[in-house]
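As a representative case, the lines below give one protein's residues and fold tokens.
***
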Amino acid sequence: MEIAPRISVDEKICFGKPVISGTRVPVDLIIGKLAGGMTYEDFEEQRMKRFMSLRKEMKQ
């Protein structure tokens, strides 16, 4: 169920926590990072680095 533009809730995803639609990225994670001083661009860069690292691990 979409509760706001690009934010959805599904009891089967992240225990029903609000997430960015189409992902498993919890909204509270992004809010916490931004409140801590991280820019959205920094958050996206960090997320992509983790994703690429995970992909490498899965290939091994």
Summary: Residues 32 and 38 are 9 Å apart (CA to CA). The mean pLDDT is 90. The domain at 2-59 is CATH 1.10.10.10 (Arc Repressor Mutant, subunit A).
